[in-house]
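Section 5.1 Outputs to date
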Amino acid sequence: MRNRYLDLLRALAIVRVVVYHVTGWGSLTLLFPAMSVMFALAGSLMAASLLRSGPVAVGRRLRRLLPSLWVVAAIFVPAMLLTGLPLSPTVLLWLFPVADPPANYWGALALSPIWYLRDYLWFVLASPAALWLFRRFPLPTLLAPYCLLLVIELGIYPNPPVVLRHFGLYFGAWLLGFAHQSGMLRRLSAWILVPTAVALAAVGGAWVLTHAGPRGYDLNDIPLGNAFWSAAFILVALGRAPATAAWVDRSPLFGRAVTVLNRRALTVYLWHMAFVVALTPLVDVVGWSHQDLLGLAIRVALVFLLVGLVTAMVGWVEDVAARRRPELVPGGRGPASRPVRRHAESRTGDDHEPSAGPAIPVPQQRGRDGEVIAR
């Protein structure tokens, strides 16, 4: 059963990411720590996949993650090679980005969101072992990434690999997704959950206020504050998540928008920054600044318009990767959106989440496959 509340959270996170990249407003990261929320949702859905399908869920998740990246690579990598990117074996990282794939000067900006896929890929690969540990030692496993980040940020472990630093920064959110899927967060009484969230927010907020980065109080520049503040946000957002949110679909237009953003989240995420970069020269030509609200609003609208166009052109790749019937605009009621016979994993796919009931016992989950992927 779809949980429209989680669909709504994912849709809001995607919109927030795009608006932030257009406007550069660091305050948006405090109001809605979108990246950590996206990792938490992904962690919850990955845990559900593993409990249903076992380690084979890793391969299925990668199958759904990588094709949209390959479409981007098929267009941008040749363009970068023609504009100065040296041809080397590292170009193959565009097929499987366990490290940052190479890019030239403009590609590094336009394709900067690739770091999310790199981290996502590593988290997926680590999830079978992490879930095994979490089910046996939940609290120590939850605390481990935050302890790692503390060791790094306090200088005890200087100059760690980027991937390891991001395990400290975002894998805690992924594991909070495990806690959500298992029902641990729902079982916490308000007397425990609320003070814990308040304490985390206080520690994170104090760290942010005393460690402002080059862009001020932007969480992206303050890893430790980011991790604690985001953990507080996730505890409340998922710990008291409703089983559903039927009101999302009371407005057909709004409900359809939430569905589209969920079914095309990866496409929107991968492509939006290229259009942000392409439209940046308008600031000089037209004279728009980041203080010009009308100019910013126009730029946001243009980015969403261009993303919408490219999504209509290549977004169907997400349907094919998920073994769904391809749709131009997801969520329709016509013949194209009627259920079709397909592998069981597609019935609980990327934008489907079991409603917020107790986690299914493991013995009942080893039979038929059910796959979920988040973004």
